[in-house]
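Changelog-adjacent note: as of this version, every example in the card shows the full chain rather than a window. The one below runs 531 residues end to end.
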Amino acid sequence: MSEIDVRQDGRTIGDYLANTLLPRLEGFLPLIIGLGIGVFLVLMFGRLPTKWVTFILFAGFAGSVLILVMLLTNKTRESILFAAIPTLPLYYSITPGFRENTLYSVMSNGFPIDLFDIGISFLAIGWLYQLWIKTNPISLRFPRAWLIPMGLLLFINIYSSLFIARDNFYSFSMIYSQLKCYLIAFFIANYIRDPHSLRLTGYAFAAILLTQGLIVMEQLFLGVIFTEANLGRSTSLKSVADLGTIYRVAGTLGHPNNMAMYLDLIIPWVGFQLVIEKHATRRVYLGIAFFLAIFAVVSSGSRGAWMGLLIGGFISIMLWYRKQKKSPIVVLFSLVIVVSILFATLFAASNTFRTRLTAGDAGAALVRVPLMEVALETINAHPLQGVGLANYTGEMRRFDRTDLRISSYYDQPVHNTFLLMAAETGIPSSALFLLILVLALLLAYRVAMRGQDEVAALGFGLFASLIGWTIHNQVNHTAPFTETTLWVLLGLLLAAYHLLQRQDNLSQRQHIAAQQSPKNRPLRAALKRET
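Full-length structure tokens:
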């Protein structure tokens, strides 16, 4: 016999293994693998910092949920997009070339690869496959009016890095971020090609508002028990107000002003998407995210963010009602009443809001005004070429003529994005970036007033966001090319514009088809006789 009988019914060892033992072992296989992974994690966690332990647990849970959603829905690309967006404000990244000990404050350091980069790369690989390998390639879309200022800005920054900057490592770090932002905007503009994907992206951004709002609540009411130890970044700030202090929280963005400005970019879009949403469950989800984000912005204590959100939102709401053909006087009166009620409620209920508006703030003007004086001296000395990309704080002492000698003890750059760009790479550089913002505002207005549903909601939202961002950055310093979310939103705006063009073309074809219908032939003949 070639095989050994193990039972009286004649089954062999091979039959027993294949039909009985292996199926039973398969039931225990997930348990065995899970126990093995658990033992490995326990051993590794004893050797890793708490920050990375938290990251591994979070990434493992998020990855499991993503795989489950992909299996249940069979929509891999949408699942990856929805999972990638909420990672934008998380600062878990690998940064080759990062310099540990910097001599002064810098806006860009090293060449980071973060979670969003990884997620968007998977989508980009599939998109490139469709572009170059498949038999029906997709067309590339990007407005030429944007390419000129973007290209000139890149040229100016490369020139500044090579010939102006004393320490061009930080300059090349900024150029790396600039190129990455350009590529992300270009990819998003070409990847989003239907209203459903645009709406899904809005839900993903609402997840950011929801997460940041919950984290702010944890930081306020639980004393940053979780985030303080695990984020690896500053999560709170105590601001001087008269004789006391105000406790301000920062979510995951490192500084209250940064968090508030970040949320201001997203809140208007989610707010308008909430208005057009018809599905009850999704409306509840968007509403909770929206109001938690408003709570987070108020808790940040950032007056620049409050002003930017209020002015940008007010203008966009006026435009929204104008599109609905409502009386502007009635709309204005209604908005004034709503804003007054909201202001009174916040003034009575929020100590942070009340104190930031009424108490003296010893740090704001005392720091910002001298820093602006230093920046103006720098621009006056080097109006065309600046002192070098990402090198401002290393050079500003040479131009400090202030009585306080502010740069000797405060090494932060000027709290004004446009002055900072002009001081680093010249007035033409700042003007070119301002031109990009103007083009984006005009495009957002066009998308808002001519689009429908998701397209219009994005247009109104980004119109408010860009106004608020510009206002806030008069008193805050942001390196635009490290603000990935800004360029994601600009890419979405371009995608929405192309969706609008498709809607216009479809309407035009339907109109022509209706005119060519046999039912309309007598009408066309009568019109032809009259003309």
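Structural remarks: The chain is about 70% helix and 5% strand.
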